[in-house]
Amino acid sequence: MSPVKELFLQTQALFEYVSQSFPKEADERDRFIATIDEQLQYREQHLAKIDAMNLSELEKKLGEELVKLNKRLNKRLEEVRAEIRANITEVQKKKENARKYESPYEGTQTDGIFFDSRGV
């Protein structure tokens, strides 16, 4: 099988996998992200094997389809990345709220403090 076809099939499989809904459970999320990372690394290895100067016409057409698929894949990966960021932010807020609940008087409070500007 030609490297272009292998890359196309790998990209297509990755796109189908990434098109699934983002898992809600932490363990499933970690596996989902790890699988994406593995597939991206595998895909990168196939990309390195391609010699752009020695492609047949069929491989060039497949390459054009690959570019289109890659654009859709990048868009979906950005959506997944945004979901991951939102999830991390949510976890950080939960940790901060739990910390504040456990020790409500920790930290500085600026409510009710008046500083005299005259220096008296």
TrEMBL record:
Keywords: Bacterial flagellum biogenesis, Chaperone, Coiled coil, Cytoplasm. Residues 63-101 form a coiled coil. May act as an export chaperone for the filament capping protein FliD. This is Flagellar protein FliT. InterPro entries: FliT. It is found in: Cytoplasm, Cytosol. Belongs to the bacillales FliT family.
